[in-house]
Amino acid sequence: MSKKKVSLTTKILIALLLGSITGIIVFQFPNGTFKDAFLINGVFQLVGQLFLRGIMMLVVPLVFISLANGAASMGDIKKLGRVGGKTVAFYLSTTAISVAIALVLGYFIKPGSGLDLTAVKAVKTTIAVKTPLVQTLYEMVPSNPILAMSEGNMLQIIVVAVLTGIGLSLLGKKGQPLINLLESLNDLIMKLVEIVMTFAPIGVFGLIAKTFATVGYVAMLPLMKYILTIYLGLLLISILGYASLLKSFTGLSIKKFYKKFFPVMSVAFSTASSNATVPVNMDTCEKELGVSKGIAAFTIPLGATVNMNGTAIMQGVATFFVAQAYGIPVTLNMMLTVVLTSTIASVGTAGVPGASIIMLSMVFQAVGLPL
Question: What is the dihedral of CA 104, 105, 107, 109, to 10 degrees?
Answer without folding.
Answer: 160
